[in-house]
Design brief:
14 helices, single chain, seven-stranded mixed beta sheet, about 30% helix, about 575 residues, alpha/beta
C-alpha cells in the first residue's frame, strides 16, 4: 500500500534511525540574519521566520505544455496495482443494488482532474484505502483541486466554483453541510464515469456570464458543458436576496464526500471539470485574425514572482505518493547503528532551511546523503537553484531516479519551473563530482544526526575546500567551539567571535561562524520531538583577524616576559 505523506520517512546523510533516511540537505550561501525566530511547524505547514528575508523575484512559468509522457505514474495506475488494499467509499443512495462504485480490476469508478497546464489531466480511482494511513486518491484529488482554484485563479474566477472549505475531507465526521437536499429527484442516475450528457439545457449556467473569459476546447463543446451545470440547478441558492441563484460546487462536492453519495460526486466533478476546461481552453474568437485567447492558468503563473508554498507542497506530495510511497518498505533495509540509517526532513523544515540560508536562483545546493531526493527536488522547485544530491544506498538511489522523473512531469503539469537537478549514486567521500562541486557550492546539507565520528571528521576535511561565505547545514554541529544555543525559538549568531586560544588555533571548526536554530515537532521523520540544527558559514576573514590578534598577544606576552627576567 502507499502510505500517506504525513508518515513518510525522509533520507538522511549516511545514517539514521528506522524512519530516517541516509540523505542530507544542503544550504545556500547568504549572510545570516541575526535573531531569526521560527514558529512551530507541522507536516502540512511550513516553518515561518518572523524576520524572514524577502525572497528574490524569479520567473516561475514554462513554455512547454503539460501532457504527461511515457513512464507517468498516475494516481489511477498506483491504486489499480494495489486494488486489493482498497474498498468502496461511495455508493448510490437511490439504488442499493448499484455496484458501480465497488472495487474492480477494470470497471472501477473514477474522476478526471484537469491540471493547470495545457494537455495535463489525471484520473483518480474513487476508492478508499483499507488502511487510513495509506494513499487516499479521493483526498489527493480534492487537495489538488483546491490548490489549483486558490492559487491559479483571480477572486472573480474562483467565485464561479463556490466556497473553498477550511479543511479537506480528511476529518469528514466534523463536516457540516450547509446544503439542504433539493426538493425532489436530485440524485443522479447510477454511473461510475462522469461523461458530459448530450442535452443542451443551460439554465443554471446562464447566470454565470462572467465565465465568458474562458470557454471550452473543441473536444468539450459548450452544449455538453452547459448540461453538466443544468443537472445541478436544483441545488442553486441565493447568496443575497437580490442575487441570482447559484450553485456552490465546492460545498456541494464536500456534501457528496460527507454523504458518500457517488452519483452526486460525479455530477459535481463533471461541472467543475467543465469550468476548469473553459479556463484552460478558451474558444477561438469569431475573427480569425484576432489572437487566440491564452490558457488562464498559464497567465496566472506568469504573474508569480515566487512559488506559492501550497503549490510546492502539492507537487511534493503528489510525487512522493506515487514514486516513493509504494516502495517505502524498502527504505527500512539498512544496518542498525551505522551511518546509513534512513530518515527524512519534512518539507516545512526544508523551507525553513531555505529561508535561513537565503538559498535562491543562481546558487548551487548540495545534499550529501540525498536518500530518495526529497530535499534536492524541493530546493530546486522552491527557489529555482541548481541542486545536486549523492546517495550511497542502492535502494533509495534507485527510487530517487524514479522520483526525479515524476517530479519533472508534475512540474510540467502544474506549469511551473524548477531548477536543474542531478542525482548520483555513490560514496560522497569518493565521488570526484562531489569534490568538484563542494568548491562551487553555496549551501551544503548533511543530515549527520547519527553519523559515526570518522564520517563526520572526513566531512570536516572535505569542507575546507568551501568558498568564502558558503554554508554547511547539519543536524549535529560539525564546526566551531564558540557556537550559541537556540533558546526560546530564537537563533543567534555569535556577535563577537571568541578569541582564539593556543589549544584551538588549528581547529578546522574555527574557520566557521556557527549559528544554532530550532526545529520543531513534526520536522523530521524519525521522532516527534524537536531539536536544533546548525548553520556553519565559512569565514576565513574572521579567522585571519582572530589569529592575528592571538599572535599579537603572544608577541606582547613574550616581550613582557623578557623584561621581567632582566
Amino acid at each position: 500500500m502507499v502510505p500517506q505523506p504525513r508518515t513518510r520517512p525522509f533520507s538522511v546523510a549516511s545514517s539514521f534511525t528506522p524512519s530516517s533516511s541516509s540523505r542530507q540537505t544542503s544550504v545556500a550561501p547568504s549572510p545570516l540574519a541575526n535573531e531569526l525566530m521560527s514558529s512551530p511547524s507541522t507536516r502540512a505547514t511550513s516553518v515561518v521566520s518572523a524576520a524572514a528575508p524577502s525572497i528574490p523575484a524569479r520567473e516561475c512559468w514554462i513554455d512547454a505544455d503539460g501532457k504527461p509522457g511515457a513512464g507517468f505514474l498516475s494516481s489511477e495506475s498506483i491504486v489499480r496495482d494495489l486494488m486489493k488494499g482498497y474498498k468502496a467509499y461511495f455508493a448510490n443512495p437511490e439504488d442499493t443494488e448499484d455496484r458501480s462504485f465497488d472495487p474492480h480490476p477494470t470497471h472501477y469508478p473514477y474522476a478526471t482532474l484537469e491540471y493547470p497546464n495545457t494537455g495535463a489531466s489525471e484520473r483518480f480511482i474513487l476508492l478508499a484505502p483499507k488502511d487510513k494511513d495509506h494513499y487516499n486518491p479521493i483526498m489527493c484529488l480534492e487537495s489538488s483541486l483546491h490548490t489549483i482554484i486558490e492559487h491559479y485563479l483571480t477572486p472573480a474566477q474562483r467565485s464561479l466554483f463556490g466556497t473553498l472549505p477550511v479543511k479537506d475531507l480528511a476529518d469528514e465526521e466534523s463536516y457540516e453541510s450547509d446544503y439542504s437536499a433539493p426538493a425532489s429527484n436530485a440524485s443522479s442516475p447510477p454511473s461510475s464515469v462522469p461523461s458530459p450528457p448530450s442535452d443542451s439545457s443551460s439554465s443554471s449556467f446562464s447566470s454565470r456570464s462572467c465565465v465568458s473569459s474562458a470557454s471550452s476546447d473543441s473536444s468539450f463543446s459548450a452544449i455538453s458543458s452547459f448540461s453538466c451545470f443544468s443537472v445541478l440547478s436544483s441545488y442553486a441558492q441565493r447568496r443575497t436576496p437580490s442575487s441570482p441563484p447559484t450553485v456552490d460546487y465546492l460545498r456541494l462536492l464536500q456534501r457528496a464526500i460527507h454523504k458518500h453519495d457517488g452519483p452526486l460526486f460525479l455530477k459535481v466533478m463533471c461541472a467543475i471539470t467543465a469550468l476548469l476546461h473553459l479556463f484552460k481552453y478558451p474558444p477561438l474568437p469569431p475573427d480569425l485574425f484576432d489572437p487566440t485567447p491564452p490558457n488562464e492558468f498559464r497567465v496566472a503563473v506568469k504573474s508569480w514572482t515566487s512559488m506559492p508554498s501550497a503549490v510546492v507542497q502539492r507537487i511534493i506530495d503528489e510525487t512522493y505518493q506515487r514514486a516513493v510511497g509504494p516502495h517505502v518498505h524498502k527504505l527500512t533495509r539498512y544496518e542498525a547503528f551505522s551511518s546509513e540509517v534512513y530518515g527524512e526532513l519534512m518539507p516545512p523544515f526544508v523551507s525553513d532551511i531555505v529561508r535561513a540560508t537565503h538559498l535562491r536562483e543562481g546558487m548551487l545546493f548540495l545534499d550529501l546523503g540525498a536518500g530518495v531526493g526529497n530535499v534536492v527536488l524541493q530546493a530546486a522547485l522552491e527557489t529555482g537553484c541548481r541542486a545536486y544530491g549523492v546517495e550511497i544506498m542502492p535502494e533509495p538511489a534507485k527510487i530517487a531516479r524514479s522520483q526525479v522523473e515524476e517530479f519533472k512531469t508534475r512540474c510540467r503539469m502544474w506549469g511551473v519551473r524548477m531548477g536543474e537537478v542531478e542525482l548520483e549514486e555513490g560514496d560522497m567521500l569518493k565521488s570526484e563530482k562531489v569534490d568538484r562541486l563542494v568548491k562551487e557550492a553555496d549551501v551544503v546539507l548533511v543530515n549527520n544526526k547519527v553519523f559515526l565520528e570518522p564520517l563526520n571528521e572526513a566531512l570536516r576535511q572535505k569542507f575546507l575546500d568551501l568558498k568564502e561565505g558558503a554554508i554547511v547545514v547539519s543536524l549535529k554541529c560539525l564546526m566551531g567551539s564558540g557556537r550559541t544555543t537556540a533558546r526560546h525559538g530564537i537563533a543567534r549568531e555569535r556577535s563577537a567571535s571568541p578569541a582564539l586560544k593556543e589549544r584551538n588555533m588549528d581547529d578546522i571548526g574555527e574557520i566557521f561562524t556557527v549559528t544554532a536554530r530550532p526545529y520543531y515537532p513534526g520536522s523530521v521523520s524519525w521522532g516527534g520531538a524537536g531539536g536544533e540544527y546548525f548553520l556553519q558559514r565559512m569565514n576565513r576573514e574572521d579567522y585571519a583577524r582572530r589569529r592575528q590578534q592571538l599572535e599579537k598577544a603572544r608577541g606582547g606576552g613574550m616581550m613582557r616576559s623578557t623584561r621581567s627576567r632582566r
